[in-house]
Amino acid sequence: MYADDDGGLFISDVGNHRVRHVDLASGVITTIAGTGTFGYSRLSELAVQTEFKGPFSVIKDADNTLYIAEYFGHRIRKITAERPVDVAPEAEIDRLLRQAQTVFGTLPMEAVSAENSVTPEKIALGKVLFHDPQLSRDGSVSCSSCHALDDYGMDGLALARGIDDKIGTRNSPSVFNAALQDSQFWDGRAASVEAQARGPLLNPVEMDMPDEASVVAVVAKDPRYQSLFAQAFPDTSMPISFTNLSAALGAFERRLITPDAAIDRFIEGDRSALSEQQLRGLGVFMREGCASCHAGPLMGGQDIHLIEEYPNTRAGDQLEFRKRLGNTHKFKVSPLRNIARTAPYLHDGRYQTLHAAVRNRLLAYRIREAGTRDTVDLAAGELDALVAFLGSLTGQIDREYIATTDK
Question: Is 194 a catalytic residue?
Fold first, then answer.
């Protein structure tokens, strides 16, 4: 810790690999160096885009130059008041590219399952089932009612609506890329898309079928399903079953992947795939610790839970491991793929715009949940840059794969 001439403090945040400054007059804490990632770049670069290996102490000289001792890096790092002359945009892009490749990785083209192999026959059956309103009590609601495949798997409503126009308690998440998540539903109560597919069919607010046998009876009466089930499950004596129905729906959803987003092209090495504003937003995303939860190919979707507690989250009452983790009333972190096309946001659709969602979630995470700040001090234009970067996560829908045909 080092006190400056203006009554502020420079703090070596060794555990988070950052150097911070505290303005004692306002109480504002600003990150002035470090991304929070343990590492080292041999190129000179902007301080906030530099990786450290345990900054242990800091001191400032009369020329406003900071010297930082790296405990694990065994070196002294120097931060000048002016931009280093050898920091070229190319070097910054290189660094962001390395980070994106490491933190996000490559999006798979299929969510592979050892228990449910994906075959063309299962996909064909699952596609028909997904669009069939006969699977609801009064023939008015299908899976596609809440998950419009031509609109990134969304209905655009704050809360889902089901049979008899009943309103649910949660927003309908997108089905695109969902099979790549560690668990399904907002509270993660289903382990797979196959398990998830069973829930809405029997939910009294959604499709309201009385029981599994009722669903099977409806399917068995439809002549086209006799052939489709037999082709999809040729080694089964009774192809038409509730288990096979959910397996077919799961197989169809396992190919609902949206590749070729701008971020994917960037990760593959196309340095021009992201605009200057999106590159700036990627830098802010990494600097602010967004990637601590929103990592991996989906930029989230892992079985990591928000610290904030919400009502109507009963998953912890059903799953013992969630009780042990203290996640009984908490939702998992959502993936960010296609986020610019899937408004409104959060489990209850409380935010209509991406700007509002990003601003409020960043505030909640930094202040209330992570407890790392008293305020969020984004520089001018950084919120817009973050939103622009999130726009680069919009992938391509395979229109031929999801196109429906006449019954």
Answer: no
Q: What is the DSSP string of 318-381?
A: H-HHHHHHT-TT-PBPPP-TTGGGS-SBTTTT-BSSHHHHHHHHHHIIIIIIS---SS--PPTT
Judge: domain 2-79, CATH 2.40.10.500: yes
Burial zone of 246 (CB within 10 Å; 0-12 exposed, 13-18 middle, 19+ buried): buried
Using DSSP's 3-state secondary structure scheme, residue 38 falls into: strand
Amino acid at 270: D
Burial of 99 (0-12, 13-18, 19+ CB in 10 A): buried
246's enclosing H/E stretch is helix 242-253
CATH superfamily of 120-256: Cytochrome c-like domain (1.10.760.10)
Residues lower than pLDDT 70 in the chain = 1, 5-7, 25-27, 41-45, 81-88, 303-329, 364-377, 404-407
Active-site hit among 70, 206, 253, 288: 206
89-107+259-300+335-391 and 120-256: identical CATH topology: yes
pLDDT, tens digit, 9 for 90 and up, residues 279-314? 999 999 998 888 888 999 999 987 666 655 665 555
SS3 of residue 208 by DSSP: coil
Instruction: Report the top-level CATH class of 89-107+259-300+335-391.
Output: mainly alpha
